[in-house]
UniProtKB/TrEMBL annotation:
CDD domains: SDR_c
Gene Ontology molecular function: any one: oxidoreductase activity
Keywords of the record: Oxidoreductase
Family the UniProt entry places it in: Belongs to the short-chain dehydrogenases/reductases (SDR) family.
Protein name: Short-chain dehydrogenase
Amino acid sequence: MSISKVVKDLRGRLDDKVCIITGGGSGIGFEASVLFAREGADVVVADINLKAAEATVERIKEKIGPIHVRKHAIAMKCDVSKEAEVKKVVEDTLKEFGKLDVMFNNAGIMHAHDDNVLNTDEKVWDLTMDINLKGVWFGCKYAIEAFRRKKNGGNIINTASFVGLMGAATPQLAYTASKGAVIALSRELAVTHARENIRVNALCPGPLRTPLLMNYLDTEDKINRRLVHIPIGRFGEPIEVANAALFLASDESTYITGVEFKVDGGLTAAYVTPE
Ligand code: NAD
């Protein structure tokens, strides 16, 4: 086999791309960080929990073979609700790698006391909005600024949720509202920046088997209330969402912008599917 054939076969789907992944310390962000790195990207794992981000980077180093040593993964501490911290992550990324190609605004919370219209405390509402919505706005703002500076276009993926499209089975008003707003924000940015070769898509996962949701669904009853709505009959896995993010981050999706990319086991297509 010729060397050029070997090298061609080793090319990853994100070769030469620099990606920031927020919330990269756990769940979808963790899986996406490992996957993106394996596909050849330089990855900045940004998380409010620096130790978790560093553990992700260690995992990347363990998983990526020596052929990819030219690639880098670095951990950065970032609370996405703090504008200065998001700005710094983007600036530090440009200093380290010279450009930014993909901003995956994935960090998000579902507060344990998020509730219905009467019971949701204003503090819970504000914290949820600050992280889930303002954090995405800041990420888009500084990514687009970086894309413009480097004049190389760019690609933004914002993690929303199926609840932003259809509401939730159990009350979690602040979360649902924040995710609906992420979808609306993503759509507008996709349109207003399309001619700059900047793509913006909202990723809409269904319920996943991650700590975020499993901590919230803490009774059999709550779990079953969800499962009855999922045609595929199980919760999704973070890697299944990370695979979709990889497609959106890659040049395989260059004509896709402004979409709500659902990864939900058929949930949003279903009327109701009990046995
Ligand atoms: P997770 O809790 O496993 O991971 C979230 C990560 O974000 C953690 O590492 C956490 O430290 C980090 N984080 C929290 N607050 C942050 C902040 N202010 N700044 C930076 N990082 C912060 O969650 P996950 O399930 O992987 O969720 C990732 C995204 O997917 C979230 O936006 C979530 O709303 C969305 N989502 C999750 C589900 C699900 O069922 N798990 C479904 C739909 C959408």
